[in-house]
Specification:
Hexosyltransferase, N-acetylgalactosaminyl-proteoglycan 3-beta-glucuronosyltransferase activity, Spore Coat Polysaccharide Biosynthesis Protein SpsA, Chain A, signal-anchor, six-stranded antiparallel β-sheet, 4 domains, Nucleotide-diphossugar_trans, six-stranded mixed β-sheet, golgi apparatus, alpha/beta, globular
C-alpha cells in the first residue's frame, strides 16, 4: 500500500511542479518540499515485518527453560522482534536473543529491570516499530490475534493497553492511586504505542527514584500516567483479551485448554511450566488447523456452486467436501448403512450397538467435542446479541442424540438449558430451553491404507520414498529423520531392539504365514528386532503316533527357521524348545529368562500380523520403570461369513462387519524385563487356554506400574477356529465359549443370516395355515 501511494504522490507532485513552475516558482517549491517530507516519512516508517517489539522480562535461572519455551513457541510468529531481558552477566550463548541489562540484577520485584528494559527499547528501536510490548517469560501470546487487534487501532496516538487493575481488595488505599486512576497489570502483558514510549523514556530515572510501592506494574502505570498523559484503557473487553487465570486452585499453568475464554484471548497468563507451554502451543496450532480445514470446505462449496453455474464437471473431492450441509442428506440404501442414533445425558451415553455396553460413561473425547460444539452454538446465538441489547448464557445440556458417519459427518440433536439476559437489566435472567440441530462435516482423510505388497516390493517402495519419515524417540526426545529400510548404521543405534517372544505348539501352516509377515515387515527392511520362538513338542510318555507326529512337526518348524537363517544370515532369530504340555505363561517365562532387565519384550502370538508402525509404538509407549503397553487388538471375524468366500484385499480392514476390538484381551503386551520381574512374572501353573494374561495385567496394576492401553491399527489377530477343552475349569471354559461365540460375525449379520435361513420356512408355514383355514 505504501509503494502504491508513493507512486501516485510523486507523479502528481512532480507534474504539478513542472506545470506551475513558470507561473509560481514558490508554489512549486512548496510542493517539492512536501514531496520530500513524505518520502522521508515513508522511508522511516516501519515495514510490515517491524510492526511490534516485544520485550520479555526473565531471569538467569529461567533462561534455559521458560525463556527457551517462549522462544520456540509463540515468539516465532511475532510480526516484529522479540528479545529476552535478563540481569547483567547472563549467558548470551543460548539459542535465543538475550539482552543482559547493565547494573541490573534478578532481585524481586523487578522494578529496575522493567524500567531499564523500556529505556533499552527507546534507545535502540524507537523509530523502527509502531507498538512496544512488555511481558513476562511465563506468558503465551496469540500473535495473529494480537496483530489483527493492534492494526485496527491508530498507532500514531498515545495508547496504553492491557488488563486494567486498581489493586486487590486488601491493597485498597495502599497503592497511592487517586480516584479514577488505574494501571495495566503486568502479568497478562502491557502494550503501548511508540508515542507513549517516546514521552515516558526521558523520565525513567525520576520514576525509579520516586516509587511509592513495591509493585512493578503499579509504578510503571504511575510513570506512564504522569509523563505520557495516558493510563490503561477502561474496558471490560480487555479482561477477555488479556487473560489472567484467577482460578483459586491455579497451579501456575493453563490447565483447561477447552475453556471458552481461551478462544478469543490475545495473551494467556500464567504458564510457568515449559511442557505446558508446548502443550498450549500445540493446542493453538490444532485450532488453527481446524480453522484452515473449515475454510477449505467452504472453498470446495464455492467451487461446486461455480461448477453448477458454468456447467463444468466437478472433481470427486469437490463433490465430497463441497456438498451443502443438510440434515436429510444421508439416505442409506442398505440396512447396514443405517446409522443408529446414540442417546446421551450429561454423564452417560446409551447405545444399542453390540460393540459397547448399552450404558457407559461419557468419554473424555466426547465431552470435549460437546464442549466445542456448545461454544460454537453460543457464539452463533450471541453474534448480534449485544447489538440487540441481550445476551444468552449456557447452563447445561439436558440430553441429546448423536450419530457419526466416520467418513463424512457427525450429527447432533441437543436439548439446551439457556439463560436469556437483557444488558440493561443485568439482575434479571430468564431460563429457556432450546433444541439445536447440528451437522458437523469432515474434511478429507489424512491417511490411506496401502494394499499388501511382497517383501521385496515393499522394501523398494520404502527405499524410493522421496521424504524421510520423522519420529521422536522417547529416550532422546529429539526429532530425527528415519528412512525405513535403510540398513546403514546411522540410525540403528538409536532404535531399541524389540525382542519378540512367540509361544507355539504345532500349527505349522499358521507359522508359515507368521514368518512370511515377519519377513516382509522386519527382515526385508532390517528392523531392529529379535525373534525367539518358544516351541512345545507334542511328545508324551507313552510315545505312539501322536508323539511321532509332534516330532515331525517340530522338525518342520526347525527346518523353516533354518531356511530363513540361510536367506538372512544377519537376522537374530532362534527357536527354544519347551518341555511339557502347552502353557503360554510357562513359555513366556522361559523366553524372558534369556534377556536382561533393560530388554524390551513383545509378547506375541502366532495368529498375529503386525506392521512396522506397531513396533515403533511398542518402543514409544513402553517406559522402563514407569509404563507398559497393552495394545487393544483388532480381532477378525470368520472370513467365510464376512467375505462370503471372496478373496480379501487386505488384513488391515477395521469395520464393525469385519471384526471387533478386543478391549478385554490382555495377552499381547510390550514390557521391559525389569518391570516384569518387579510385578511378579507369569503364573506358570496355569495350563491350557486363558487367564495367564489377566493374571499378569492385574499384577502390573497392583505393582504401581502405569498401564497404557490404546486401539492399535498396526496389529491384527487373524481369525481361526477356537477349540474349547471341556477339561478346563468351569470359569475358563465359559470364557472360552464366549470368546468363540464373539469370533463368528457381527450380531446384526448373524441375525440377518438366521432370518435368511428361516424366513422361507416361516413363509411356507403361513401359506399352509391359510389354505387349511
Amino acid at each position: 500500500m505504501q509503494k502504491t501511494i508513493l507512486k501516485l504522490w510523486t507523479s502528481g507532485g512532480h507534474c504539478s511542479f513542472h506545470k506551475d513552475s513558470r507561473k509560481d516558482l514558490g508554489g512549486g517549491l512548496r510542493w517539492q518540499r512536501q514531496d520530500n517530507e513524505f518520502l522521508t516519512a515513508v522511508k522511516n516508517a516501519p515495514s510490515p515485518g517491524n510492526f511490534i517489539f516485544v520485550g520479555v522480562m526473565t531471569a538467569q535461572k529461567y533462561l534455559n527453560n521458560r525463556a527457551v519455551a517462549a522462544h520456540r513457541t509463540w515468539a516465532q510468529t511475532v510480526p516484529g522482534r522479540v528479545q529476552f531481558f535478563s540481569s547483567e552477566g547472563s549467558d548470551t550463548s543460548l539459542p535465543l536473543p538475550v539482552v543482559p541489562l547493565q547494573k541490573v540484577d534478578d532481585s524481586y520485584p523487578p522494578q529496575k529491570k522493567s524500567f531499564m528494559m523500556l529505556k533499552y527499547m527507546h534507545d535502540h528501536y524507537l523509530d523502527q516499530y509502531e507498538w512496544f510490548m512488555r511481558v513476562d517469560d511465563d506468558i503465551y501470546i496469540h500473535t495473529e490475534r494480537l496483530e489483527s487487534f493492534l492494526r485496527s487501532l491508530n498507532s500514531s496516538k498515545a495508547i496504553l493497553l492491557g488488563q486494567m487493575g486498581t489493586g486487590a481488595q486488601n491493597e485498597q488505599g495502599t497503592l497511592a492511586l487517586e480516584p479514577g486512576e488505574n494501571f495495566c497489570m503486568g502479568g497478562p502483558g502491557v502494550v503501548m504505542t511508540r508515542e507513549v514510549l517516546r514521552r515516558v523514556a526521558p523520565h525513567i530515572g525520576q520514576c525509579l527514584r520516586e516509587m511509592h510501592t513495591h509493585h512493578e506494574d503499579v509504578e510503571l502505570g504511575r510513570c506512564i500516567r504522569r509523563f505520557a498523559g495516558v493510563q490503561c484503557v477502561w474496558s471490560y473487553e480487555m479482561q477477555q483479551l488479556f487473560y489472567e487465570n484467577y482460578e483459586p486452585d491455579k497451579k501456575g499453568f493453563i490447565q483447561d485448554l477447552h475453556n471458552s475464554k481461551l478462544r478469543h484471548a490475545i495473551t494467556l497468563h500464567p504458564n510457568k511450566s515449559p511442557p505446558h507451554q508446548y502443550r498450549l502451543h500445540g493446542y493453538m496450532l490444532s485450532r488453527k488447523i481446524g480453522e484452515l480445514r473449515h475454510h477449505t470446505v467452504q472453498l470446495h462449496r464455492e467451487i461446486l456452486q461455480m461448477s453448477d453455474l458454468t456447467n463444468a464437471e466437478p472433481c470427486e473431492e469437490d463433490l465430497l467436501l463441497g456438498a451443502a450441509p443438510s440434515l436429510t442428506g444421508l439416505q442409506p440404501r442398505r440396512r447396514q448403512d443405517v446409522l443408529e442414533w446414540e442417546f446421551f445425558t450429561g454423564t452417560h451415553l446409551y447405545s444399542s450397538s453390540d460393540r459397547y455396553p448399552p450404558r457407559r460413561t461419557l468419554s473424555a473425547p466426547l465431552r470435549a467435542a460437546l464442549h466445542d460444539i456448545v461454544v460454537q452454538v453460543m457464539e452463533t446465538l450471541n453474534t448480534n446479541g449485544k447489538a440487540m441489547n441481550h445476551v444468552v448464557d449456557f447452563k447445561e445440556v439436558l440430553y441429546g442424540y448423536r450419530r457419526v458417519d466416520a467418513l463424512h459427518r457427525a450429527e447432533y440433536v441437543l436439548d439446551l438449558l439457556l439463560l436469556y439476559r437483557r444488558l440493561k437489566e443485568p439482575g434479571v435472567a430468564v431460563r429457556v430451553k432450546r433444541h439445536a440441530y447440528l451437522l458437523q462435516t469432515f474434511s478429507r482423510a489424512l491417511f490411506q491404507e496401502e494394499r499388501d505388497m511382497e517383501a521385496v516390493q515393499l522394501a523398494d517402495r520404502i527405499d524410493q520414498a522421496s521424504s524421510p519419515i520423522a519420529y521422536i524417540h522417547k529416550s532422546h526426545g529429539r526429532l530425527s529423520p528415519l528412512r525405513l529400510g535403510d540398513s546403514s548404521s546411522a540410525f540403528r543405534p538409536s532404535l531399541e531392539t524389540v525382542n519378540i517372544l512367540v509361544p507355539l505348539s504345532g500349527r505349522f501352516d499358521v507359522f508359515i504365514r507368521f514368518m512370511g509377515n515377519f519377513e516382509k515387515v522386519c527382515l526385508a527392511s532390517k528392523q531392529a528386532v529379535k525373534l525367539l520362538v518358544l516351541l512345545f513338542s507334542a511328545e508324551n510318555e507313552e510315545g505312539g503316533s501322536e508323539s511321532k507326529r509332534g516330532q515331525a512337526e517340530s522338525t518342520k518348524h526347525a527346518e523353516l527357521m533354518s531356511e530363513y537363517h540361510r536367506k538372512y544370515p544377519w537376522a537374530d532369530i532362534a527357536v527354544q524348545p519347551v518341555a511339557g504340555p502347552f502353557s503360554r505363561g510357562l513359555a513366556l517365562h522361559v523366553g524372558s529368562s534369556h534377556f536382561s532387565n533393560n530388554s524390551l519384550l513383545f509378547f506375541c502370538d502366532v495368529d498375529l500380523l503386525f506392521r512396522a508402525d506397531f513396533l515403533m509404538r511398542c518402543r514409544d509407549n513402553t517406559i522402563l520403570g514407569e509404563q507398559t503397553y497393552f495394545p487393544v487388538i483388532f480381532s477378525q471375524y470368520d472370513p467365510k461369513l464376512v467375505y462370503e468366500g471372496r478373496a480379501r484385499d487386505s488384513q488391515y480392514v477395521f469395520t464393525s462387519r469385519t471384526g471387533l476390538w478386543r478391549h478385554y484381551g490382555f495377552g499381547i503386551a510390550c514390557v521391559y524385563k525389569g518391570d516384569l520381574v518387579r510385578a511378579g512374572g507369569f503364573d506358570v501353573s496355569i495350563q491350557g487356554w486363558g487367564l495367564e494374561d489377566v493374571d499378569l495385567f492385574n499384577k502390573f496394576i497392583q505393582s504401581g506400574t502405569r498401564v497404557f492401553r490404546s486401539a492399535d491399527p498396526g496389529i491384527v489377530h487373524v481369525h481361526h477356529p477356537v477349540v474349547c477343552d471341556p477339561q478346563l475349569d468351569a470359569r475358563r471354559y465359559k470364557m472360552c465359549l464366549g470368546s468363540r461365540a464373539s469370533s463368528y460375525a457381527d450380531t446384526l449379520q448373524l441375525a440377518q443370516l438366521w432370518l435368511e435361513k428361516n424366513g422361507q420356512a416361516f413363509h411356507s408355514t403361513n401359506i399352509t395355515q391359510t389354505h387349511t383355514n
